[in-house]
Structure prediction request, 231 residues.
Amino acid sequence: MKTLTLHVHASGPNPYKVAIVLENLKLPYELKLWDFGDGENGMKGPNFLKINENGRVPALATLIPAPEDPNSSVLAWESTACINHLLRTYDTSYTLHPNPSTTSPQDLVDYDKWTSFLITTLGPMMGQLNWYVHHNATKNEDARARYEAQSYRYLDVLEGQLEKSEGKSVLPGGFGAVDCHFYPWVNGWTYAKLDIGKYEKIKRWLKVVGERPEVKKIYEDIPKAEKAFKG
Prediction:
């Protein structure tokens, strides 16, 4: 029985982040695919707004409530909240995040600061760049140039960090939740029309992470997931 439901959209990096964590933790789950818009299967429609009043994916919920399990009634949205819930609840062997009892204070801070760097800095800048490249109703080259420049600046920072692991993982200790956060965003460099030619460590890291079976599976599964409401 699949006990978790991940609500997704085929485009956009954030649902992929959560799905990669689910796969790496080998948890049973199902995918429900939503569309843009306010229709029956739309993220701004009444059905999805009952799940997330902000009308955004991902959202993570249990499939069948179980009163004896306090985790069964949890509904999470925002990718970081979803991932943190999964790590706290299911990653009891600390395969993807640091054990606070055995990890140095600096390593704990490094985990938090690099997660925060993606969530508050690199991700939002690339998201704004994507908007001005693809979606803004009127051409605004000044705005596009600003977000493009900032995206490159933050890729410079990431390249420097990846040098510490020779391009194997964002944190030197190996693949973990921080890589799950970063990969779907940085992997969208082509959609953002960025040039990563000079970023040797980023290119190596994208290849290493992208070849993981869990990551390959997610990029195959999400676009063909069953719609939440078929109409």
